[in-house]
Each structure stands twice: as C-alpha cells, then as structure tokens.
Amino acid sequence: MFISLIGFMGCGKSCVGKKVSDALGCTLTDLDSYIVEKAGKSIPEIFSSCGEQAFRLLEKESLGEILSKSGSGDTVISAGGGTVMTPACARMLKEDTLCIYLKAGIETLVRNLENDYGSRPMLKTGQGTLKERIEELMRQREAVYESTAAITVNIDGKTFGEVADLVMDAVREKSLR
C-alpha cells in the first residue's frame, strides 16, 4: 500500500512521513529528494536552469516511477508542496495512494517557514511578504489539496509526533474498512 502526504511547504510532510514510515516499518520516499537524486541538481538549481514547467514534468515522471514499484512493499510518499497542482500527479495520488492532507493555517506555515524559505523557489517568486506569498499560493492550492486527499489532518497547535499519531490512527481506521 502507498500512503501519500500532501500539503503546503512547511506543514511537516517529511518529518511526519519519517515517523509514520518508522511506525509502520516501511519505506519513506521523499519526492523532492528522489527528484534531486534523479536530476543530480537541487530543486532551486532545477528551477533556475530549467524552470518550473520542467521541474513539474520531472516531478510527474518521478511520482510515476515511485508508484510503479508496487512490489516493493508499503511505502509512505512525502509529496512536494505543489505536486498536486499538476493534474496527472493529483490523479495518481488520489487513485493510487491513501492520500492524507496535512492542513495548516497561514500562521502555522509562516512560523514553520520563516527561517527556512530561501531555498524554496515558489516562495522566492512573486510579490510581498512571506505571509502574503503563502496566502497567495494557498488560494491556488487549498481546494486541490482537499479534493485530492481521502483524509485531512489539521496540524495547527500540534507537534509532528502528534500529527504522525493522528495519521497512524487514520491509516488504521481506513485499513479496517
């Protein structure tokens, strides 16, 4: 079974994914790390040298590769913040994984990203403050996150460990059905 974690940058997909994969005794595949290894370049380098469109194509190909390894056992996939904005990726996550949206409020995202957004190309483009950029991107993405996910977990006011516990509870409940 594939479990995917989606949500905005800074919502804890990688941290929560590590805790969930450890608890399940399965593999964690961080989509951004997979892309970096495949391309031999960092995400900012890919954006800078090739542009967002090329990055999104590489992201789609990489997600397809990960999902084609169905015989490799259970896997938790930590998707990139914008992965769902490519319709083919959203469809793969929705249809081929138990997709969980880690939903965070704007203030939580600002707090989580304020010291770590320089290497995030989507936050460096556009106008305004970090908060304004997050609000702009969330207006574009939130409905897609919600329509792609089978389960939504609100992370506001919770530690990544508490969020991982909530994700595990949701996975257990879903697998019992």
Describe the fold and architecture.
The chain has nine helices and five strands, in the order βαβαααβαβαααβα. The chain has helices at 13-24, 31-39, 43-50, 52-67, 87-96, 106-113, 121-124, 130-148, 160-176; strands at 2-6, 27-30, 75-78, 98-103, 151-154. Strands 2-3-1-4-5 form a five-stranded parallel β-sheet, sandwiched between helices. α1 (13-24) crosses α9 and α6 crosses α8. The radius of gyration is 15 Å and the shape is globular.
Strand residue percentage: 5-15%
What would the principal axes of the Cα set say about the shape? globular
CATH superfamily: P-loop containing nucleotide triphosphate hydrolases
- Which strands sit side by side, in order, in the main sheet? 2-3-1-4-5
What's the CATH class, please? Answer: Alpha Beta
What is the chain-wise order of helices and strands?
Answer: EHEHHHEHEHHHEH
- What integer value in Å does the Rg equal? 15 Å
Low-confidence stretches: none
- Kindly report the oligomeric state of this protein: single chain
The total of helices stands at: 9
Helix content: 55-70%
Q: What is the total domain count? A: 1
Kindly name the structural category.
alpha/beta
CATH architecture: 3-Layer(aba) Sandwich
The count of DSSP E runs of length 2 or more, i.e. the number of strands, is 5
